[in-house]
């Protein structure tokens, strides 16, 4: 198992603390040895100054005042290991002799003769005497410091990594489908929130891409049914021996054109590239769409729907043309499929377009949800969902409303039925 962040931080801080403690202890020892050696050197130098001044004043060579300092004429009386070490390094003044003693020397010249002052300092060295106890105390101090630092590092490590651990737990528990809930603002406004924002954005982008892929599959299944049915009916109506008439060719070309246009539009919608917009004459677009849907007056159910039009002239909108065309086609197709009354009301204003038709088909709850369809529908329940998403791309808002059911004695039906008025409104400037 990988080491957790608090443990890693604790180990790192503990290692740094122990290293600093050891280095600091070593510096203290070196400093104490340097201070001690300099004291001995200054004592020997002070004896040398005293002897030189006394010799110049009296002409006689006095003895050193300190008992641990001896005066030697030339180097003949000095220990041989000292003479050998001095030859190897001329400026050396401290020597460890074979008998375990330590001496400091100072050379002075009187009338051309070398005299050597040698101080035997091993009886005055406190560093060697206290070193074992000092090392023990330093080790104990280092352990105590390391323990204290470990506790502090553990607490600080947990506090510092708590947001990261919380973020890791939250990311690992993210749902497979986005529910729209955000989490980045729950973190402190620092690098952690930046990281949380990046994770949140990536997650939503991924979910959007997956949802677009799902919607594309459903949209294609929904939208290509009509042109494929046209082509299929066209071929079924002609035997192999009969040739297609110019009208048949024209109908086939139109169906193929619709297939190509729908495929390009839905691919753009799936890739989130359907943001190219232009100025649309909405009044003209609605009129052309109604003219193209001849089944309004010749449906498969034998209906002839009377259109109550109230189209305001000169309505221009900034929107994606192909998506808007698909939106209108889907609305008209739904009316043809589900309308059971004789009238269809269509109202276009500068702020909205609404469609009202009567139907005996029960309207499901949330009909705009993907996969939700009417009871007798043979489709896949994608039409209103596609309309709602097209509205979102154009920054519009779709609203549906079904009035309370009322009894109806239809002239076209022998039984007493209930009907409801279904109203679909697209708001161009939602508040």
Structure description:
- This protein is an alpha+beta fold and 431 residues long.
- The chain is built from nine helices and twelve strands.
Please give the number of β-strands. 12
> pLDDT below 50 for ≥5 consecutive residues: which ranges?
407-415
Could you give a short account of the major beta sheet?
Answer: 6 strands, mixed
Helices, by number, come to: 9
Sequence of secondary-structure elements: HEHEEEHHHHEHEEHEEHEEE
* Helical amount: 40-55%
3D shape: rod-shaped
**Separation, N- and C-terminal Cα atoms:** 54 Å
Q: Tell me the strand percentage band.
A: 15-25%
Mean pLDDT: 80
By secondary-structure content and strand pairing, the structural class works out as alpha+beta
Radius of gyration, in angstroms, nearest whole number:
50 Å
What's the arrangement of secondary structure elements?
Blueprint: H1 5-58, E1 69-73, H2 80-88, E2 94-96, E3 102-110, E4 113-120, H3 126-172, H4 191-223, H5 225-236, H6 246-270, E5 278-281, H7 282-292, E6 306-311, E7 316-319, H8 321-338, E8 343-348, E9 352-359, H9 383-393, E10 397-402, E11 406-408, E12 417-427
Parallel strand pairs: 6-8
Antiparallel strand pairs: 1-4, 2-3, 3-4, 5-7, 8-9, 9-12, 10-12, 11-12
